[in-house]
């Protein structure tokens, strides 16, 4: 057997560089590259190894470990989970900074290969800089924090362990059912240890995403349920995108006359102009979608994990009078909510359902109701997003301005706060790839880094990041990375002087305004400073400007589109209004006892609302 002597780190990056994947009939590199922030735990081993493979496996220098992992995750999402990135850090804070990103990827079923440095496997120099010692178990390091938020975890204590562990990590990253973060903790000494690896281990390999067919009995159950339906509804989740089933869903829905509502991850599966597209579902849903969900007799949920924002905390569309079919590649998700499971790939499953349903269609009255509700909702969206000439516009009005300036080549990116809810309700999608909102983990700080990842995945698209002042202040460093790498973003910063979304929730549950808006926080006598976001962005190398009102914003968006570098637009907005039309109940626990009458009143409303929950 022919061998090649390499360090563990050299073998790892050589293997990654050899991995290929077939996408739309074309062979491309599986890994776009590696985000890296070097420290003493990875610079000598991984750093030296990455230096020698820059032409086949580029290294991208970031400014924050969590943010670079977010960018890598967004890259994978924008590529439909078919192309990936890795992220490497030093041990200690560099590693733990990536734990939040790992949790985000785990919640959203998104792949990223995490390569944190680790302490010495030999333990000879212990305790070392940044080592957190566990008094009762010396085998534990901070990297064990990755275990509950990784789909696959291993600590490579011997260089030959790569031979078995690395293929398993790649398999996890590409598995449609178990997709999520894979973490290989890399002790800094073992990164430098050499081993005679079989040359065959580094032979190029072409991966293909497997497509699981449905079980015959589950398929028959689903067909029988649909054939009895007079008022069917489809809920499209992120799995529709990842299975490349958007076109198939559009054709299936149109042929069968079934309205399609979308989750946050599923939004954009159908263009808003599609006759069956009725908008967002659930807590941040359209009135059209939620009314149809309440009246539907059969609901086909495709590629969604049916979290509480989708189901209205299990109060929107569950009940003995409805049949729920959960078509999902993940068995774990297809068994939720007392559903009829249909465990399979979304594209394959929709194809087999379509072939078996013959001439069946939803009822004529149901299709007419769908059209009526769709038109009514479109009028609401037009009205709430229109420019009303306010000095402090609402989030909805800002969204309207950005949406009107967006072309079919635009992707909007967002994550946390009130903006994702307003976007889910109001953004008019041009089709797949036009909407990228992380709301499975609702992670503040994802927005700008996520926009960078989307732009790296789809450089031909205009990427517009919408971000609140709170998230901007948490994570803005990758603006500098976007400028450094030449990946132009348009960033719209909505400054409502605090955490406006949670302030509204606080008051809705009876609480007093407290510690959310800056005016309600403990500050010096002069109050919290007014952040000049445009000046800050300019200091990071961006083009930028501050505007007042919607008319000025629309003009600035035109200038931003013609810019060649990242362009940041800041404007002040009103923290109090949100779109009241549409939506559904969301369970947020309210205190049983309080000295505030408003809280006691909110608790009574909470108890009444819980009576609608499925049990």
UniProtKB/TrEMBL annotation:
MF-aspect GO terms: 3D-(3,5/4)-trihydroxycyclohexane-1,2-dione hydrolase activity
UniProt entry keywords in alphabetical sequence: Hydrolase, Thiamine pyrophosphate
Annotated Thiamine pyrophosphate enzyme central domain residues: 221-346
Domain Thiamine pyrophosphate enzyme N-terminal TPP-binding: 34-130
EC number from the UniProt entry: 3.7.1.22
Thiamine pyrophosphate enzyme TPP-binding domain span: 417-569
Top EC group: hydrolase
PANTHER family for this protein: 3D-(3,5_4)-TRIHYDROXYCYCLOHEXANE-1,2-DIONE HYDROLASE, THIAMINE PYROPHOSPHATE ENZYMES
Record family assignment: Belongs to the TPP enzyme family.
Protein name per UniProt: 3D-(3,5/4)-trihydroxycyclohexane-1,2-dione acylhydrolase (Decyclizing)
């Amino acid at each position: 057997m022919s061998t090649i002597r390499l360090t563990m780190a050299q073998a790892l990056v050589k293997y990654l560089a050899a991995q290929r994947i077939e996408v739309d009939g074309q062979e491309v590199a599986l890994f776009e590259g590696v985000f890296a922030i070097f420290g003493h735990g990875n610079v000598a081993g991984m750093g030296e190894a990455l230096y020698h493979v820059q032409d086949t496996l580029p290294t991208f220098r970031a400014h924050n470990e969590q943010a670079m992992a977010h960018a890598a995750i967004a890259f994978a999402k924008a590529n439909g989970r078919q192309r990936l990135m890795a992220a490497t850090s030093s041990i200690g804070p560099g590693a733990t900074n990536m734990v939040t990103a790992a949790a985000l990827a785990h919640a959203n079923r998104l792949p990223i290969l995490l390569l944190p440095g680790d302490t010495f496997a030999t333990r000879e120099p212990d305790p070392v800089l940044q080592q957190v010692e566990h008094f009762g178990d010396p085998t534990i390091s901070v990297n064990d924090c990755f275990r509950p938020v990784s789909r696959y975890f291993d600590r490579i204590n011997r260089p030959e362990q790569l031979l078995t562990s690395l293929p398993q990590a790649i398999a996890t990253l590409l598995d449609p059912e178990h997709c999520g973060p894979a973490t290989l903790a890399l002790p800094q000494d073992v990164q430098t240890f050499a081993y005679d690896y079989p040359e065959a281990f580094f032979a190029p390999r072409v991966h293909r995403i497997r497509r699981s067919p449905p079980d015959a009995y589950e398929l028959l159950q689903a067909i029988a349920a649909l054939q009895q339906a007079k008022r069917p509804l489809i809920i499209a989740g992120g799995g529709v995108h990842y299975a490349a089933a958007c076109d198939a869903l559009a054709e299936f829905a149109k042929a069968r006359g079934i309205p399609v509502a979308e989750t946050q991850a599923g939004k954009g599966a159908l263009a808003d102009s599609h006759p069956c597209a009725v908008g967002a579902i659930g807590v941040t849903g359209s009135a059209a979608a939620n009314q149809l969900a309440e009246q539907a007799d059969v609901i086909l949920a495709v590629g969604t994990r049916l979290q509480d924002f989708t189901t209205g905390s299990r109060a929107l569309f569950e009940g003995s009078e409805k049949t729920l079919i959960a078509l999902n590649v993940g068995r774990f998700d297809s068994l939720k909510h007392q559903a009829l499971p249909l465990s399979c790939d979304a594209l394959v499953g929709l194809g087999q359902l379509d072939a078996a349903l013959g001439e069946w269609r939803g009822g004529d009255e149901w299709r007419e109701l769908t059209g009526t509700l769709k038109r009514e909702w479109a009028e609401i969206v037009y009205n709430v997003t229109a420019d009303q000439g306010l000095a402090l516009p609402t989030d909805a009005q800002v969204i309207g301005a950005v949406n009107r300036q967006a072309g079919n080549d635009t992707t909007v990116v967002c994550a946390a706060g009130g903006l994702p809810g307003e976007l889910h309700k109001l953004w008019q999608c041009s089709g797949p790839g036009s909407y990228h909102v992380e709301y499975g983990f609702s992670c503040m700080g994802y927005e700008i880094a996520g926009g960078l990842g989307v732009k790296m995945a789809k450089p031909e698209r205009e990427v517009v990041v919408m971000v609140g002042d709170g998230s901007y202040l948490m994570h803005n460093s990758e603006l500098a990375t976007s400028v450094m790498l030449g990946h132009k973003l348009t960033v719209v910063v909505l400054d409502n002087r605090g955490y406006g979304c949670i302030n509204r929730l606080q008051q809705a549950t009876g609480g007093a305004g407290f510690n959310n808006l800056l005016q309600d926080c403990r500050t010096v006598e002069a109050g919290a400073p007014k952040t000049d976001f445009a000046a800050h962005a300019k200091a990071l190398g961006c083009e930028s400007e501050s505007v007042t009102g919607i008319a000025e914003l629309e003009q600035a968006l035109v200038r931003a589109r013609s810019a060649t570098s990242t362009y940041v637009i800041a404007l002040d907005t009103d923290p109090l209004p949100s779109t009241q039309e549409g939506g559904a109940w969301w369970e947020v626990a309210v205190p049983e006892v309080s000295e505030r009458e408003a809280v006691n009143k909110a608790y009574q409303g909470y108890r009444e609302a819980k009576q609608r929950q499925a049990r």
